[in-house]
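Input.
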Amino acid sequence: MKKWIKIEGRTKRHKIIRKKVSGTSQRPRLSVYRSLKNTYVQLVDDMTGCTLAALSTSSPSLKDKIKKDGGNLKGAALLGIAVADLCKEKGITSIVFDRSGYVYHGKVKTLADALRKGGLKF
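Output.
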């Protein structure tokens, strides 16, 4: 029962956040999803409804560096740096951060700090 209450609370928070947060092609929305084993990130242009880029700790390019640390803070930090590099390649300098209803703490905060270190503004 407690698990469902937590999930319902997160989905309610996510809906509230999505009403306020929207991405464009110049400033895409960076959506975060986290599971117990991995963290997933997408850059989304909400005006056209397409995903510009997606990366996760289970991606082949990061799997060698991360190994078994995909679900912890170290994996989130490495993912943030990789996403910042990917954004530089695509010419994106600023984003809108969508935490998807997760509390800004732990993996989500570490990911955001790594993105800022990589040069993204939000």
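The CA atoms of residues 71 and 80 lie 13 Å apart.
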